[in-house]
């Protein structure tokens, strides 16, 4: 039976990692001070940015395997689970973690940043892999927060801590941009598979059975989280994944409209729309004229 640990508070995190608690809502953990342990199944009720200073070796990225020797950053949010219970060997953990309770960020800009960046919704195999310089940049900010936590709490404490957390997220956004660029060969393969899957979707019966295709559908097809997939497509093409889907949908719709034997209603259903008026509205938004006007202009 796997060993489960509920980490729903800073106190619970510190107790599990043999750390003192300086603040009830945020902590910086030095894993080298934790007791040796084997793997656990950890259920989180807090946010955690975990910097693992280990040799990652071969990792899975989607369905591709690559070798990356630098440090790794994993983002965990409330409701997520890290399961390492398969690791039965006793080991000494290493690295750093910044953990904070959702209550800490109430009234700050952090909730919006977390939603905008989406790191906390990425899969584990979409972790951030750092260069030595990038690793040191994050460690320096971790240490600044740790130093602040050891000071007496005053009116500046929350602002300084939240500002440094925001700085970490902004640096990680930059580092992810670098990671997308340095793995262009991997990304090109993902985009090609996305295009093929998208075209195949409209050639199949799936629009009838599943309706309009979603970003989450294609992310799942590619074994990626929806947020990571969306970020990758946006950074590689300049357009969102939803825009890419709509572009293909409109292209297929134009081809179908040329078939004068089919009504606009029939075409809408073939494309996966539940209501033909929704199709007509989208078509006019994208093309500038209605489907019937487009048909008339093409004859």
Could you walk me through the main structural features you see in this protein, from its secondary elements to its overall organization?
By secondary structure, the protein is of the alpha+beta class. It is built from 12 helices and 10 strands. About 5% of the residues have low confidence.
Largest beta-sheet details: 5 strands, antiparallel
| Distance, first to last CA | 69 Å
Mean pLDDT: 86
- Unreliable spans are 54-69
Count of β-strands: 10
* Share in helix: 40-55%
Q: Which sequence of strands runs across the widest sheet?
A: 2-9-4-7-10
Rg over CA atoms, rounded to whole Å, is: 24 Å
Number of helices: 12
Percentage of residues in strands: 5-15%
Q: Could you give the order of the helices and strands?
A: EHEEEEEEEEHEHHHHHHHHHH
């Amino acid at each position: 039976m796997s060993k489960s640990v509920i980490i729903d508070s800073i106190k619970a995190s510190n107790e599990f990692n043999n750390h003192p608690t300086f603040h009830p809502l945020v902590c910086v953990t030095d894993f080298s001070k934790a007791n040796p342990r084997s793997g656990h199944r950890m259920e989180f009720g807090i946010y955690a940015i975990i910097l693992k200073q280990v040799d990652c070796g071969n990792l899975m990225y989607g369905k591709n395997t690559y070798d990356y020797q630098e440090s790794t950053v994993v983002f965990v949010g409330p409701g997520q689970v890290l399961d390492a219970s398969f690791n039965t060997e006793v080991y000494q953990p290493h690295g750093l973690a910044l953990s904070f309770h959702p209550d800490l960020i109430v009234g700050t800009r952090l909730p919006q940043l977390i939603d905008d960046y989406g790191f906390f919704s990425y899969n584990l195999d979409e972790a951030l892999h750092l260069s030595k310089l990038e690793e040191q940049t994050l460690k320096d900010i971790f240490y600044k927060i740790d130093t602040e936590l050891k000071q007496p709490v005053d009116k500046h404490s929350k602002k300084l801590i939240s500002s440094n957390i925001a700085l970490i997220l902004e640096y990680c956004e930059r580092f992810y941009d670098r990671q997308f660029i340095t793995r262009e060969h991997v990304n090109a393969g993902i985009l090609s598979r996305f295009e093929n899957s998208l075209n195949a979707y409209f050639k199949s019966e799936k629009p009838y059975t599943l309706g309009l295709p979603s970003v989450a559908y294609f992310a799942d097809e590619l074994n990626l989280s929806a947020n990571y997939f969306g970020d990758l497509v946006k950074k590689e093409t300049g357009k969102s994944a939803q825009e890419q889907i709509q572009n293909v949908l409109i292209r297929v719709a134009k081809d179908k409209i040329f078939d004068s034997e089919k009504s606009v209603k029939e075409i809408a259903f073939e494309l996966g729309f539940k209501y033909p008026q929704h199709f007509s509205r989208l078509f006019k938004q994208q093309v500038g004229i209605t489907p019937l006007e487009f048909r008339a202009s093409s004859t």
